Amino acid sequence: MEATKEHCAYCFDVLLAQLSRTGSPSSIAATFDNRNKDYPLFVTWQKKSSSGSGEERLRGCIGNFSPMRLDSGLREYALTSALRDTRFHPIASNEVPRLSCSVSLLTDFEDADDYMDWDVGVHGVWLEFQMPGGRKRTATFLPEIAEEQGWSKAETIDHLLRKGGYELTITDEFRQSTKLTRYQSQKAHLSYDEYTALRKLSNAAS
Q1: CA nearest 5: which of 38, 32, 25?
Q2: Which of 167, 92, 106, 194 is nearest to 142 (CA)?
Q3: Burial per residue of 165-204, b for 16 or more beta-carbon CB atoms within 10 angstroms, e otherwise
Q4: Which whole number is the average pLDDT over 18-41?
Q5: pLDDT, tens digit, for every residue of 102-121?
Q6: Which bin fits 22, alpha (ψ -120 to 50), beta or left (φ > 0)?
Q7: What is the C-alpha to C-alpha distance for residues 78 and 61, in angstroms, rounded to an integer?
Q8: If we measure between CA atoms, which residue out of 108, 105, 110, 104 comes closest to residue 180?
Q9: Are 18 and 78 in contact (CB under 8 A)?
Q10: pLDDT score at 52
Q11: What is the C-alpha end-to-end distance of the chain, expressed in Å?
């Protein structure tokens, strides 16, 4: 199963219904293939810079590693990532024309032999580790993140540890104590302009 632009368009439909309050997001019907199939998935929102450079900055990204029915999973995480990612304030209506949406369907989960047993640009990484006192924490980066940031494998692991809340000095011994799961993803991306064009075509055809 490949992620498609129609998956991203559905996320826009759901977000706009929520922000405009013209209808319930749960009433938005999904028409794409395999909507009843289960997948682990992430929804990512990015916002185009107001400087005109075209640069996009992260505006929200949340998902679930447990397989979910595709239509309800996209509906839930379109809103969760847009409105409840605690790193950002909730997306407002006036931001929507500068947004883009990405949908990642996660595949090929494998236990890694150690924290270096994965390939930048190919694998996403899900790291599990213990905080002082024994509390377990987790953090993940999707497959494109390390390559986009120009990070090495070790740098990626260190950023994951910080993302997961680890604040002490990071030693190689501690990196070795972590458990890493690698995975791949099918990703689709859609800008707001592409979304409006797609919906115009859909309406004209109906």
Answers
A1: 32
A2: 106
A3: ebeeeeeeebbeebebbbbbbbbbbbbbebbeebeeeeee
A4: 86
A5: 999 999 999 999 999 999 99
A6: alpha
A7: 9
A8: 110
A9: no
A10: 67
A11: 26
